[in-house]
Amino acid sequence: MLALLLVAASMGVRIAGDGCGGHLTAERGVITTSNFPRPFDVPASCRWVIDSSSTPQPPVVIVVYLTQLFVSTGLTFTEYAYYEPDSPSFQLEPRVLHTVTEENAATTATVWTNQSFLVVDFAMDRLEGNHLRAADGLLDVFGINVTYNMHSAIGKLPDYSCTAAKCSLLGNCYASADYSNFWCDCFSGYSGKQCSMGPLCHPDSDICENNSTCR
Ligand SMILES: *[C@@H]1O[C@H](CO)[C@@H](O)[C@H](O)[C@H]1NC(C)=O
Ligand SMILES: *[C@@H]1O[C@H](CO)[C@@H](O)[C@H](O)[C@H]1NC(C)=O
Ligand SMILES: *[C@@H]1O[C@H](CO)[C@@H](O)[C@H](O)[C@H]1NC(C)=O
Ligand SMILES: *[C@@H]1O[C@H](CO)[C@@H](O)[C@H](O)[C@H]1NC(C)=O
């Protein structure tokens, strides 16, 4: 725990202040880097504290849905049994749940905890080389825009959520207004649940024979 505190201190993590980060106590919401999808100011350092400790009917599971995540580094998710947002030195049982890497950036769909606090840390010194790049529509996208939801532990989690990869890197993954449904909003010319059908694929054309899939 001490080591973790020192790391946090040396990264100069701030809470809110510069347009990112914050103490999130609402049942659901979005976590977005400044100016998304446009470039954010670097160096960036943000901490979001998702806090379910005051929800009316615990226990809850906090789930973060990594809908629009285009960074390949700099993002870490840590659960805590207790975390004092105003005094980060008072915290209990930190455990790192997920660290975004080039390998998992496009594919990990959710991060969840049954602890009361899920802390999302984001730190980046430069934009270049730290973002996923694909298709025309994603050549110019910076940062993250993901949703979180506090589910009652016995409640049912959505059985589908999307990611950049699930949308074939050819569309944006969005959550519905109540963050309980997810879908791919495909770039112009692409269609299908996962945007895998390309401009030449029309639902009633039969250019794909033998049960193959058009893309
Ligand atoms: C909380 O989640 C962990 C896995 O992260 C699991 O091992 C544990 O049993 C869960 N506890 C409860 C009370 O559900
Ligand atoms: C951010 O994500 C939310 C939920 O998926 C979506 O409604 C919103 O349009 C997104 N914002 C941008 C700028 O893409
Ligand atoms: C479909 O299968 C038939 C028989 O195996 C073959 O002759 C034909 O070329 C296949 N069509 C395509 C588009 O692969
Ligand atoms: C295509 O799939 C259907 C249903 O799975 C099957 O009945 C049919 O024989 C398949 N056709 C070819 C050409 O493989």
UniProtKB/TrEMBL annotation:
Residues 158-196 form the EGF-like domain. It comes from the Eukaryota. Residues 20-50 form the CUB domain. Keywords: Disulfide bond, EGF-like domain, Signal. Disulfide bonds join C167-C184, C186-C195. Residues 1-17 form the signal peptide. This is CUB domain-containing protein. It comes from Apolygus lucorum. The lineage of its organism: Eukaryota, Metazoa, Ecdysozoa, Arthropoda, Hexapoda.
